[in-house]
Design brief:
The structure is a homodimer. The first copy, chain A, is built from 13 helices and nine strands. By secondary structure, the first copy, chain A, is α/β, with parallel strands linked by helices. The structure holds a DNA duplex.
Chain lengths: 323, 323
DNA sequence: TTGTAGGCGTTATCAC
DNA sequence: GTGATAACGCCTACAA
């Protein structure tokens, strides 16, 4: 593989001149430029990026870290990658499984100058472990974080969830069951708070029904359909934390001969493809915009700009799983 | 940021010794090792990977290239990334949209030593454009390729599609419509060949129904439901090229009050989550295993091994959209 | 067991 | 306009 010196030699100039030609800065006479470009063509030369990166101290590469990739994470991933590529950044994926060490490895890459910035979608380690890495480059999170040092594109799920609860109430539900997701983040806490406030507002008893937590997949939703069938005093509405759970609940109910929304109403969350397909009433959650904002936050830090963020709002998508 | 010389100075040794400690090769006395490790701790030192890569001429990073990320591509992405990470490789994502130049950019990264190998999921450029890059590192494709130089984890869709057709026939369908996907690759050609052979075998007229090509999304499937409703002599079976299309067809049919499989049968393809959720009879397509094989092919080339590949087979998953 | 020094391939600061 | 040359930070013969 030819290097810059080979080009210089073959063109009868110094490597400094070749570098100027490549990077199009500094003065080069038209004549020598032509000559150098010709040689570059002939020798099929291309600069070694590792050398460039070493010299420049940056790689134009961002990392994106998550334990797995669900539907909504994929949407985020897509939006972020597209934004990044638009500005000339590549994106490296770190799938951490449930391995905390893998997450730390990704952060190490930032420290080791392999990554210019990092997007953390779902966190595994404590913030105390991760926070020290902020000094090596911009880090942005999706989930909310108790620290002021780390910017986040987090949206308070309290508002979105409340939208769903209000809709259930408005359509006649008085005996609502919540299907919460993972309890490790703050979203479930926000949702529980929303539910309590909701109950207080309408003088409902919040302890009428058991708590369901940690539901994530459509399989989880399917189990709930069976649970519902066994109850003597049946709930008339389900508020969920994801469209996948809602989808599982609805499809399994159908298999059991239970009609939605006649028997009960369901509100999903996220507004992903499956919700549209199954006509699930859900809460639209502008993940794509969050992803763009996430990139903007990193980009601004990296380039000392102040590009504006896109404003974010939840809103209800009324479909056919509520009355 | 401390570098190796700072460590050397602080520990009162040479940078060569520090390097030996870091890489655990060469002889270092227990005493100096301890001393050096202590200093590394104290100065919070970690080697700059760009320098390491420059020196070593490899980055332990693989690229994965695709225009977009659909459900099945995401499955592939996941499998590949997990396999790669298991062997210490990172994976960089190149989302090319429909921009041929972006695809070439990714291949350039291979040439520029930023990538040790490349997985190409869906191709945009002609092979003639891409083939020259094989000399810069291992390249593996998902789609079949007319060239012998490029290994592929391609599976001949003829077999899988035939499985679906045979099943439709066995369950009584005699008037089958094919919902083919993109015509740019070879898969659709294989499927069309399968259909012709199928018709010949059972003495069916292959031109009884119009051709549907280029269907990919659930929206496309939905449109077919409307088409079906308008026909006077209605087909009794649909063979599709993706679960998404099948899902759209089925859900829209339901909205139109058409019962599946009473009115017609549907066979999906891929066996992704949505097929399970909607009880779609489909063809299982071991994408995850293909992804693992893809990594193995690259890994073998990179390390001159001969790790075995996982054998791949299609099989029919009978659910409730066929009789 | 340790140190010296050259080289990996660029970029950028000086001179000229 | 162009050319030396010193970094960037690390690894690794080869010496000692």
């Amino acid at each position: 593989m030819a290097n810059i010196k080979d080009i210089a030699k073959a063109a009868g100039v110094s490597s400094a001149t070749v570098s100027r030609v490549i990077n199009q800065n500094g003065y080069v006479s038209e004549e020598t430029r032509k000559k150098v470009e010709l040689v570059i063509q002939q020798l099929d030369y291309v600069p070694n990026l590792n050398a460039v990166y070493l010299k420049k101290g940056a790689t134009k590469t961002l990392g994106i870290v998550a334990p797995y990739f669900s539907d909504s994470l994929t949407v985020f991933l897509r939006g972020f990658t597209l934004s990044a590529q638009k500005e000339g950044y590549n994106v490296t994926l770190f799938m951490t499984g449930d391995d905390k060490q893998k997450e730390l490895d990704a952060f190490e890459m930032l420290r080791r100058k392999q990554l210019d910035g990092l997007l953390l979608l779902i966190r595994l380690n404590d913030w105390k472990q991760l926070e020290p890495f902020t000094k090596y480059g911009p880090i942005v999170t999706w989930q909310r974080v108790e620290s002021d040092h780390i910017p986040s594109v987090f949206m308070n799920h309290y508002d979105g969830y409340m939208l769903g609860l209000e809709h259930l109430y408005a359509t006649g539900c008085r005996n609502i069951v919540n299907l919460y997701g993972s309890t490790s983040g703050l979203n479930t806490k926000s949702r529980m708070k929303a539910y309590l406030d909701f109950c207080e507002k309408y003088h409902l008893n919040p302890n009428l029904q058991p708590q369901f937590k940690g539901l994530n997949s459509s399989e989880d939703g399917e189990k709930v359909a069976h649970w519902w069938k066994e109850q003597s005093t049946k709930p008339d509405g389900f508020a969920t934390s994801s469209d996948a759970v809602a989808a599982g609940l609805i499809t399994e109910a159908k298999r059991l001969g239970v009609r939605v929304p006649d028997a009960f109403s369901v509100v999903g969350f996220d507004n992903i493809e499956i919700a549209r397909l199954l006509d699930i009433t859900t809460i639209d959650y502008p993940i794509e915009k969050q992803a763009q904002n996430a990139f903007t936050l990193i980009f601004n830090q990296l380039t000392h700009r102040e590009n504006p963020l896109i404003p974010l709002d939840f809103h209800l998508i009324k479909r056919h799983t509520t009355k």
